[in-house]
Amino acid sequence: MLPLVKKYWLLCGTFALLFLAVFLVNLDYKNSHKGLTFAMLDVGQGDGLFIESPTGTQIMFDAGSAHKVLGPLSRVMPFYDKEIDAIVITNPDADHIGGFLDILKSYKVGLVLEPGTINDSKTFQNLKSEIKKQKIPDILAKKGMRLHLGGGAVIEILFPDRDVSLWDANDGSIIARLSYGDTSVMLTGDATKKTEEIILKNNSKSKLASTILKVGHHGSRTSTSDEFVKAVAPEYALISDGKSNNYGHPHRETLDILGKIGAKILRTDLSGTVIVKSDGSVLRWQYAR
User: Helix, strand or coil for residue 253?
Assistant: First the structure.
């Protein structure tokens, strides 16, 4: 009888310790996320950006190519958290949307935002079918939309400001600005110089100025014009690119433009996942491979 009692109490003790461990991990996670978290995930040659507000609202801007995002995402989300409030498709190219199918299979997603550009690829068609199958609200992003994430964090859509359904995917990319206190991030997708010119014409420099610029199109020379960079005037420039990629990204011209304004350049091919946490004024940087 005694051995059975010992086994019973040993089992109870094990479960109690497990519960306590999960509780402490959850408490530590909540305490460490009182501010804003922005992460440029290392998804290789593609874009995958994770945002978490001070109140815990989570958004993914793009998700890289297929089978690239879940590993890096697990480093910024706890293992037990299987819900993402919204995903944003900045453009329908595979290096931005391929990973969303993996996310939809692993996480419950509450909302989809997209620009309205289209792609004939099977990847895009399968993604749209899965969104419809799961009955996730699918909304076209439009200039002026403001997404209040909680705790003072806001995402404002700056582009598209018109119907871009027949536009080239890169030209029609969503451009948005994330702000929290004195910290701001310009999110550009694969937006080209053509799109940047529209943004410059329709917005004051004070509205574009940002602490961080997520550099357009992985540092390609087709984006990141001198005029746009001067208007944004970032302290930091983040480039999501694959190691030894076939496109030569980031291009020398882009690096030179960013260098002229003294922006500190951070790249996934060199640093892996780049994570910044902000209390509204002070930034703390982390890197993960």
Answer: helix
**pLDDT (mean) for 10-34:** 48
Residue 235: the pLDDT is: 98
**Res. 258: pLDDT tops 90:** yes
Q: CA separation (Å) from 81 to 14, 73, 146, 289? A: 23, 11, 25, 21
The two three-digit tokens of residue 8, written as one number:
């019973």
Task: Give, in order, the Cα–Cα distances in Å from 139 to each of 10, 42, 112.
Answer: 53, 27, 6
Superfamily of domain 33-275: Ribonuclease Z/Hydroxyacylglutathione hydrolase-like (3.60.15.10)
Q: What is the pLDDT of residue 9?
A: 54
Helix axes 94-106, 122-133, angle to 10 degrees: 30
Whether 26 has a pLDDT exceeding 90, the answer reads no
Q: What rounded mean pLDDT belongs to the chain?
A: 92
Alpha-carbon distance of 285 to 269, in angstroms, equals 17
Cα–Cα distance for residue pair 24/27, rounded to 1 Å: 5
Confidence band of 251 (pLDDT split at 50, 70, 90): very high
Task: Mark out the alpha helices in the chain (DSSP H runs).
Answer: 2-31, 70-74, 94-106, 122-133, 193-202, 205-208, 226-232, 252-260, 268-271
Q: Cα–Cα distances in Å, from 36 out to 23, 167, 188, 202, 212? A: 22, 33, 19, 28, 13
Residue 276 main-chain phi, psi, to 5 deg: -125, 135
Contacts for 181 with CB less than 8 Å, ≥ 6 apart: 152, 278, 279, 280, 281
Q: Are 109 and 102 in contact (CB under 8 A)?
A: no
Distance set, CA 124 to CA 46, 83, 94, 106, 281 (Å): 15, 22, 7, 18, 38
